[in-house]
Amino acid sequence: MTTHKVSTVLITGASSGFGEEFAKEYAKRGHRLILVARRKERLETLAQSLRKQHNVEVIVEPVDLSDITEITKLHSRLNDQGVAVDILINNAGHGLQGEFLESELESALSMIQLDIASLTAMTHLFGADMKKRKQGQILQISSILAFQGVENFAVYSAAKAYVLRFGEALHREFKPHNVTVTTLCPGLSDTGFVDAAQQRLTPAMRMMMMKAPPVVKAGISALDAGHMSVVAGLANKFTAMFFWATPRRLHQAVLSRIMNG
């Protein structure tokens, strides 16, 4: 489904990384934006810049997306204001590198809460509205790591596998209601995620790292084309094909070497 009209786009995790880039890309296209993240100051700075550059309406919503109650309040608040979300970009997420038993349990659970529970809540609430209107688009942000359980990324890769399979199922469930669900699987990208996840960059990872703009454009193009999922970047597509074509024991060992050195 290609969206030509000026739509309202809600972007989670919009204060940095892919979220910020999605905001810039949709602003270029003239859409009204709802920017959602915890850091109000960064959201306001981005909003002011986008209003000035592209003359678009930008709504700033500082929300702790790890709190399902706050997500429910956000949904209600927008409905009370008569704001209908046409495009939902479920970008907010958290990752951490390290041995599972050497990490704090709280860190693992907070990752699951944001990457799985909160994304599920956002999809349910705003997806229900789209179903009623018989129109909408949802882009779920997963990862190339969703294709495998990855050593030292146990919780993150498992969480992103949930996002991928969840999105694939909903692609078919929502299609009869004229709502497109597409899942974007980026590889390593220059978004600030590496620092936030305390991730070590191996030489192989540096070679495969992508800039954020082409990843975001790949996601939007796939969403507009109505695809079920997309892997961004030629090297990442080859990696995904390698996963599909080789025994699990082999490609898990190769991926572990790439990610951990």
From TrEMBL:
Superkingdom, taxonomy of origin: Bacteria
Keyword vocabulary terms for this entry: Oxidoreductase
InterPro entries on file: NAD(P)-bd_dom_sf, Sc_DH/Rdtase_CS, SDR_fam
Gene3D superfamilies: NAD(P)-binding Rossmann-like Domain
Keyword Oxidoreductase carried by entry: yes
Molecular-function annotations in GO: oxidoreductase activity
Pfam families in UniProt: adh_short
Keyword Cytoplasm attributed: no
Family of the protein in this entry: Belongs to the short-chain dehydrogenases/reductases (SDR) family.
Identification of the protein by name: DltE
Source organism: Psychrobacter sp. J466
Lineage of source species: Bacteria, Pseudomonadati, Pseudomonadota, Gammaproteobacteria, Moraxellales
